[in-house]
Amino acid sequence: MTAQFGDRAAFAVEIGEALSPDLRVVDLWAAGVRITTQDDVAYVPSLVHYMRSTAVRVRQGQVRPCPFPAKSPAEVFQQLEADQTDFRERYWFMRWSEIVDNVASYAYLDDLLVIAFAFRRADPPLPEHPGTVFVARIPPEDFATIVLQAVDLLEAAPIM
User: Fold this and answer.
1) Which residues of the chain have a pLDDT value below 70?
2) Domain range spanning residue 7?
3) Which of 42, 78, 101, 137 makes an SS bond possible with 112, Cβ 3.0 to 4.6 Å?
4) DSSP of 13-57
C-alpha cells in the first residue's frame, strides 16, 4: 500500500513498502515527473532529518528570492548549474539522500516556491528528456505541509 501526499503535477511524496525498520520505498514527484528514477529505497533516519529541515526552512521563509529575476526558471537553473562558486549552493534544494542523487535541483521564492531540476543521469536513459529542465511551482506552505505529513508517516513504525 502506498500513501501519497501532494499532487504529482506540482509536488508529491509517495511512501511505499517498508523493507526493514530503516529502509522504505519513497518516490518523489515534481512537475509531473518522477524524480526517484534510479533509487527509491531510502534510509529513513537520514531522509527524515533532511526532509524536516527543508520543510522548516521553507515554512520560515528561509528560501532566497530568484537570483536572476529577468530570467526564466530554466535559464536560472542553467546559470546556477554553470556557476562554479559557492553562490549556487545557496539555491541547492532537496539534497535529501541517495534517492535524489540523480538530479540537480535548485529552488527560490518568486511568490511561489519554484523548484527547477534536471536529471544528471538516468537508468534507463530518458531519451524524451535529454537536458530538459523541469519546473514545479507550489505555494511554500503547501510544500512544507506535504513534506511534514510524509515525515510523520515515515517516523511512524513501519508496517512489515
Assistant:
1) 121-130, 157-160
2) 3-155
3) 137
4) EEEEEESSSSEEEEEEEETTEES-SS--EEEHHHHHHHHHHHHHH
- pLDDT digits over 18-50, tens only? 999 899 999 999 999 999 988 899 999 999 999
**What's phi and psi for 104, nearest 5 deg?**
-105, 130
What ranges in the chain are assigned the alpha helix state H? 44-59, 73-82, 140-155
Give the global pTM: 0.91
77: buried, middle or exposed (CB in 10 Å: 19+, 13-18, 0-12)?
Answer: buried
In a domain, 160, yes or no: no
Residue at 79 is within a domain? yes
From residue 99, alpha-carbon distances to 23, 40, 135, 144 in Å are 12, 5, 19, 19
